[in-house]
């Protein structure tokens, strides 16, 4: 089951991860929240991160502890 974050407006978001290739050819894993469960959904927050809500938009983001 995907990690679920509910913001102050009672909207649910689900955490996902994806491997991308940057312009220099380096691979990097990105994390993002979506309103629906898609391929690449994560069951838990990665170690060393915490989920917070942005004050302006109410969107969840991952922040390093």
What percent of residues are in strands? over 45%
Q: Based on Cα principal axes, name the global outline.
A: globular
Strand/helix succession: EEEEE
Biggest sheet descriptor = 3 strands, antiparallel
The averaged pLDDT comes out at: 95
Please mark out the parts with pLDDT under 50 across 5 or more consecutive residues, or reply none.
none
Q: Please, how many domains? A: 1
Helix content: under 10%
Tell me the span between the first and last alpha carbons. Answer: 24 Å
Number of helices: 0
Structural class: mainly beta
- What radius of gyration results from the CA coordinates? 13 Å
* Strand adjacency order, main sheet: 1-2-3
Q: Tally of extended strands?
A: 5
Structural features:
3-stranded antiparallel beta sheet, two-stranded antiparallel ribbon, mainly beta, single chain, 65 residues
Task: Kindly describe this structure.
This protein has 65 residues and is mainly beta. It has one domain (4-64). Helix content is 0%, strand content 48%. It contains no helices and five strands. It has strands at residues 4-6, 12-21, 27-34, 49-53, 60-64. A three-stranded antiparallel sheet has the order 1-2-3, with no helix packed on it. A hairpin with a 5-residue loop joins strand 1 (4-6) and strand 2 (12-21). The two termini are 24 Å apart. The relative contact order is 0.29. The mean pLDDT is 95.
């Amino acid at each position: 089951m995907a990690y679920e974050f509910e913001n102050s407006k009672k909207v649910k978001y689900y955490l996902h991860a994806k491997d991308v290739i940057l312009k220099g050819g380096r691979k990097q894993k990105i994390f993002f929240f979506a309103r629906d469960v898609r391929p690449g959904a994560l069951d838990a927050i990665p170690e060393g991160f915490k989920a917070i809500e942005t004050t302006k938009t109410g969107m969840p983001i991952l922040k390093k502890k």
